Amino acid sequence: MTPQKDIDIAIVGGGIAGLTLAIALHHRGVPFTLYEQAPAFGEIGAGVSFTPSAVQAMKCCHDGIYAAFEKVCTRNEWESKQKLWFDYHDGYNTPPGHSFPISNSLGQRGVHRAEFLDQLVNLIPQHVARFNKVLTSISDAANGKLVMEFLDGTTAEADAIIGCDGIKSRVRQELFPTSNPSYSHKYAYRGLIPMNKAIEAVGNENAQNACMYMGPGGHVLTFPVKSGTVMNVVAFHTSEEEWEDSERNVRTATRADALHDFAGYGEDVNKILQLMDDKLNVWAIFDLYDNPVPSFYQGRVCISGDAAHATSPHHGAGAGFCIEDSAILAALLSHESVNSPADIELAFAVFDECRRERGQWLVESSRFIGDCYEWRAEGVGSDFSKIENEINARNSIISDVDVVEMCQQAKGTLSRKCSSLTREISANM
Ligand SMILES: Cc1cc2nc3c(=O)[nH]c(=O)nc-3n(C[C@H](O)[C@H](O)[C@H](O)COP(=O)(O)OP(=O)(O)OC[C@H]3O[C@@H](n4cnc5c(N)ncnc54)[C@H](O)[C@@H]3O)c2cc1C
Hints:
- By secondary structure, the chain is an alpha+beta fold.
- It folds into two domains: about 10-75 and about 110-180 and about 290-425, 3-Layer(bba) Sandwich (FAD/NAD(P)-binding domain), CATH 3.50.50.60; about 180-285, D-Amino Acid Oxidase, Chain A, domain 2.
- About 40% of the residues lie in helices and about 25% in strands.
- The protein is built from 13 helices and 20 strands.
- The chain has an eight-stranded mixed sheet with strand order 6-5-14-15-16-13-18-17, sandwiched between helices. A six-stranded mixed sheet has the order 8-2-1-12-20-19. It has a three-stranded antiparallel sheet with strand order 3-7-4.
- Helix 1 (about 15-25) links the parallel strand 1 (about 10) and strand 2.
- Helix 1 runs parallel beside helix 10, helix 2 (about 50-60) packs across helix 3 (about 65-70) and helix 11 packs antiparallel against helix 12 (about 385-400).
- The longest helix has about 35 residues, at about 340-375.
- The structure holds flavin-adenine dinucleotide.
- Flavin-adenine dinucleotide binds near residues 15 and 317.
- The site of flavin-adenine dinucleotide has 34 residues, from helix 1, strand 3, helix 9 and helix 10.
């Protein structure tokens, strides 16, 4: 759509948060430029699943995002499991103890990240993106604009900046230098297993439908991706040791390391790990639990997605919350009263008001639920009925929301703030 406002917004970062925001703004006629450090849009080839609220948020941003999701998502294979989020199993004891299903209105919908992103990129024109732009600093220009400096020595100006630059956000560091991510003491082996091999190992039901295998100090989740041809595996392990290099959250390991971490686990977990590649990547799980930001904005600079509320992945909702952020930001920035840099600052204040509590709750709750899966949460332990209750109660906070209503409420709050500001200005004249 042709830009309809005389404002100039910079989005820094083109992951799920940045791209969904870009698409939502583009289709509402809000002018922006997206600066991405990589030479092209891209994502790692792992799976990500989405909750019902994430799907609502996709539709709020732009129907094309939802269409892209529908095009590439994989569901549970079995008809009887279409509303299943995960089957939670005892992954430790032999024979396995109790299992329970957790369902929601959407069931399990996983995408291969790279495939999803490839679809999203088609929803914005190429000319809005600048690549190889590593943001290094933000400062004020004499003309009232903000100036971004990039590693390649170039600069660019904007009326406002939205940092969608992920967990290690440079934009967040500029605003709140002490709000750094910390290690959750969990790390994850990730892998993709051809579905025929996965079926041989754990049978049709568990390979083709989402499963979570729980045990003391570890949990393994699996779900089908790539139209059911591949089983995505993420095997989490809790370790008291520090992560040796906080600058690099991925290190290489071997299948033998994974098997060592899950020694004593049941047959299914063992068979799954045996099918992982010999050389594996291990991802340290960092989040903003210890050092939450005091605000999602300062002046005309705002943070969204993982930059604002990076969470451990145990609710499978981090990316979904990025898209919720984009839906709210797009609703606010396209509001009829947002026409100047000062109006954008007001919109950012409303964004902070509407999103911070929910975003930071996710970070806290995700840590707790991750410990529930590993039988180490205080007051829950390995009591399966308590674990089930905790999952249901917390999933409901994530999913049983009305994102359209959230956007309406945000716009209502902005309208009220604009009117009271106008009244204040007239009273002072
Ligand atoms: C193991 C694991 C499993 C997960 N599973 C799920 C799941 O099932 N469901 C779910 O909803 N979420 C899941 N998540 C969380 C989800 O992946 C994140 O919440 C989401 O991808 C964050 O998106 P983002 O756009 O905010 O950040 P990112 O994806 O990190 O994107 C940031 C972008 O900014 C760019 N950038 C960074 N710094 C700069 C700079 N200085 N200048 C310019 N550009 C810059 C980067 O190159 C990148 O393109 C999982 C996370 C992990 C670690």
